[in-house]
Write a structure and sequence with these properties.
- The protein is of the alpha/beta class.
- It has a single domain, classed as Aldolase class I (TIM Barrel), CATH 3.20.20.70.
- It is built from 11 helices and 8 strands.
- The chain has an 8-stranded parallel β-barrel with strand order 1-2-3-4-5-6-7-8, surrounded by 5 helices.
- Helix 1 runs parallel beside helix 11.
- The longest helix is centred in the last third of the chain and has 18 residues.
- The protein binds phosphoenolpyruvate.
- Phosphoenolpyruvate (PEP) binds next to strand 8.
């Protein structure tokens, strides 16, 4: 059985004080949730303070990025170990905004995945096609390259600490969600790729999240799909009421 996981990506939003306020509201609203795993990813500057607010509430902290080195002359970067030290249990890797705006490629993303796993953190690997790629019927090819590139050289054992987030780029921050069927089709394809790279048991236990304009009013339908194991939420993770409702999705 795959435990549902709802993760909030706060992106470049909120001052430290605002982050603390949101974290406190989430702790209050989600303190009794145990059936679903919860992750929030504030900005780097807020991590440590948000960790203190979370305390032993059932919410895990994630970073939005990392650098694939432990230490050294890498100005402006942070290692997974530093993020662990700040209270993180997970790292989001390969978000489409970083792929597009910062030209991150699958090789760099794979190095980040490996370093994150080596450091004992959960890796959340993001993949997804652009609208142009979908319209040119390149979606499966793109997903296949991103999954194979991102998971290169990993063992089946390491996959136990990795979650995949399928985020069609055309649905991120646009208000356009993939339909339940479109999302299910992509998730089932991705699970098949994981099976081909590893084995059926690894594919069956691998959690695949959907991301792209997930909101309180569409989460229930998405979560009812066989291969959708959770959500990576951007905009709607910035308000406690919406995020709490998403975490408490209703089983159909
Ligand atoms: C995201 O940034 O990962 C995301 C899915 O954003 P939104 O929910 O705002 O589309």
């Amino acid at each position: 059985m795959r435990k549902p996981l709802i993760a909030g990506n706060w992106k470049l939003n909120k001052t430290i004080t605002q982050a603390e306020e949101l974290a406190a509201a989430l702790v209050a609203g989600l303190k009794d949730v145990s059936a679903t795993e919860i992750i929030i990813a504030p900005t780097f500057t807020a991590l440590n303070r948000v960790a203190a607010i979370i305390g032993d509430a059932p919410i895990q902290l994630a970073a939005q990025n990392c650098y694939p080195q432990e230490s050294g002359a890498f100005t402006g970067e942070l290692s997974p170990l530093m993020l662990k030290d700040a209270g993180c249990g997970a790292v989001i890797i390969g978000h489409s905004e970083r792929r597009q705006l910062l030209a991150e490629d699958d090789q760099l993303i794979n190095a980040k995945v490996k370093k994150t796993l080596e450091s004992g953190l959960l890796a959340i690997l993001c993949v997804g096609e652009t609208l142009a790629e979908r319209e040119c019927d390149e979606m499966l090819e793109v997903l296949s390259a991103q999954i194979k590139g991102g998971l290169a050289d990993l063992s089946a054992e390491q996959m136990a600490n990795l979650v995949i987030a399928y985020e069609p780029v055309w649905a991120i921050g646009t208000g356009k969600t993939a339909t339940d069927e479109q999302a299910q089709e992509a998730h089932s394809f991705i699970r098949g790729l994981v099976q081909g790279l590893f084995d059926p048991a690894t594919a069956q236990s691998c959690r695949i999240l959907y991301g792209g304009s997930v909101k309180p009013d569409n989460v229930d339908g998405l979560m009812a799909q066989d291969d959708i194991d959770g959500a990576l939420v951007g905009g709607a993770s910035l308000t406690a009421e919406d995020f709490c409702r998403i975490v408490k999705f209703e089983k159909k």
